[in-house]
Write a structure and sequence with these properties.
The chain is built from 15 helices and 19 strands. It has 528 residues and is an alpha/beta fold. A hairpin with a 5-residue loop joins β3 and β4. α8 crosses α11 and α14 packs across α15. The longest helix has 23 residues. The protein is globular and about 85 Å long.
């Protein structure tokens, strides 16, 4: 009890010390003041904070004080950022109350006001445990929101600088939410908070015709990501200027679409799915149908709300129960290899795994930590998908899981099968997981209608070569004899580039599509 009381007194004493004048004049606070003024001068040269716009805030890094108690320093509003000095910074408590204000300037003889961005900065600190937040008015961040004034997202893939954004790799699609601008900066707080909540992987929010907010766990991380975001925005603008589509894997020519107005104002271009016979009936020109799972045959919510949590919650139990089996040892080898690569690449959440002779409990604990981080980041990697498939197999065998498909799926499977069309599945989930889902569905065993399963071992789903490989595997003469159905625009583009016919599935809960995307859409398999 005495020790607990002493610890409490020490913590409270530390809090009081933080707000004392001595601490406000301390070396950590002074260094952070100087750092912000230096960064503002640098950002001015980049065009991010010209015309007194933009701002930056950093938590005072002090190892002697818990992160959630560290003070917040913030550049003021309405001042020329390139001329700021350390004494111009505001000092705030962790809850946002002002502890120290700058003195009046020589002219116009009034102190600069606290940043209008303060409420937005505090949301990033509160909701993402940020260590620093940068608000840029860089021209790239404005123009990229104006190319498609109806878009609520900026999307880009297959660009090297995507690797500089936390949790992303070269093959990943980077998605940045776009919120609408308001007359006063503080009025953006609610919509920014909603975007942060709706996009758990994002480290930035774009404000249309305005700029961008970028955060990181330190000022170095925030600055690095801000530079990468601006590079990617600039690349997208330049690609657009020369008629190339930055949001597709191959960055091919932008397709000018002429078509009828569809639901939600989209202009959709019909794709060729058949030829007309003598009786004016449409006969399919495809011999094979390849289907995505999540958002196409199965609700996205089933994967995100049922399968992923089940795998996450049962990693430790599964590894402990099957540790000595050949199958699990192979899973562990794959995971160890992946984690080594992740550590070399600096992937967030990766932790070293002890040697296998270090002890079962230690190895499993490290594996669980890595797997949980991979699941949180929704990574499409073979090591994770293989282990998840084995965990789900146990869940299906124990009747703890039941596969879910949309109501129109079984009848469509039966109809296509009866017509002679071969039906395949292509998903980022392992082939084992695919067989388990369709073999134990809410409509019984549907595998009798399926001719095969493809997963990421054939290639990334957003890569054109993956669909070339599938076309060569299913035995058609022409790729156009294959119909691919997916809910993901980038997958549709990649498949189309390989010569496949493509339809986009629009199901409840699916993500939004670009305003003009050039593909036929369906709401049910009955429309095929």
């Amino acid at each position: 009890m005495a020790a607990a009381v002493a610890a409490s007194v020490a913590v409270n004493g530390a809090k009081m010390a933080m707000t004392s004048q001595a601490y406000l004049d301390s070396k950590p606070v002074k260094e952070t003041r100087a750092l912000i003024s230096e960064l503002c001068r640098h950002f001015y040269t980049l065009g991010w904070v010209s015309g007194t716009g933009g701002s930056i805030t950093i938590k005072v890094h002090d190892d002697s004080i818990p992160r959630h108690q560290q003070l917040i320093l913030m550049s003021p509003s309405g001042v020329q950022k390139e001329r700021m000095v350390p004494e111009d910074m505001y000092v705030l408590s962790p809850n946002g109350s002002v502890l120290s204000s700058p003195s009046p300037k020589a002219y116009p003889h009034r102190p600069p006001k606290c940043s209008d961005c303060a409420p937005l900065f505090l949301k990033a600190y509160e909701m993402r445990d940020a260590g620093a937040v940068i608000h840029s008015h860089g021209m790239e961040s404005c123009l990229v929101t104006m190319i498609n004034p109806l878009s609520k997202e900026f999307r880009i893939t297959h660009m090297e600088m995507i690797k500089g954004i936390r949790g992303h790799g070269y093959y990943d699609e980077l998605v940045v939410p776009i919120i609408e601008n308001t007359a006063h900066e503080g009025e953006l707080t609610e919509s920014l908070a909603e975007a942060i909540e709706a996009y758990p992987k994002t480290t930035a929010v774009l404000v249309r015709n305005h700029g961008i907010y970028v955060w990181g766990d330190s000022w170095i991380n925030a600055k690095t990501q801000a530079e990468c975001y601006h590079y990617l925005f600039d690349a997208a603008i330049k690609l657009h200027q020369v008629g190339l589509d930055w949001s597709t894997p191959n960055h091919g020519p932008i397709q000018v679409v002429r078509g009828v107005l569809g639901d939600g104002g989209n202009i959709n271009m019909s794709v060729k799915v058949g030829t007309q016979n003598a009786n004016h009936e449409i006969e399919p020109s495809w011999r094979c149908i390849v289907l995505d799972i999540e958002g196409t045959t199965t609700p996205i919510s089933f994967v995100s709300d049922v399968l992923f949590p089940y795998a996450r919650d049962n990693v430790g139990r599964h590894l402990s129960a099957t540790y000595d089996t050949e199958e699990t040892q192979e899973d562990i080898k794959l995971l160890c290899s992946q984690v080594l690569d992740d550590l070399e690449q600096g992937v967030v959440g990766a932790v070293p795994i002890p040697p296998l002779d270090a002890g079962k409990e230690e190895v499993i604990a490290a594996l669980v930590e890595n797997v949980e981080a991979m699941i949180r980041a929704d990574r499409k990697i073979t090591a994770l998908k293989q282990l998840q498939g084995h965990i789900w197999r146990t869940g299906f065998q124990n009747n703890e899981l039941k596969g879910i498909v949309f109501d129109d799926v079984p009848k469509a499977f039966e109809k296509w099968h009866a017509s002679g069309a071969k039906v395949y599945i292509y998903s980022s989930g392992s082939r084992l997981a695919q067989r388990l889902l369709f073999g134990n569905s809410n409509f019984g065993d549907l595998r009798k209608y399926l001719c095969g399963f493809f997963d990421t071992t054939v290639g990334n789903k957003k890569e054109t070569q993956s669909y070339v490989e599938i076309a060569e595997s299913v035995g058609v003469d022409m790729p156009s004899e294959i119909l691919f159905v997916t809910d993901v625009f980038q997958e549709a583009v990649a498949a189309k580039a390989a010569g496949l016919e493509v339809i986009i599935s629009v199901r409840p809960g699916n993500g939004p599509l670009p305003g003009i995307h050039g593909f036929r859409t369906i709401n049910s398999f009955r429309e095929i």
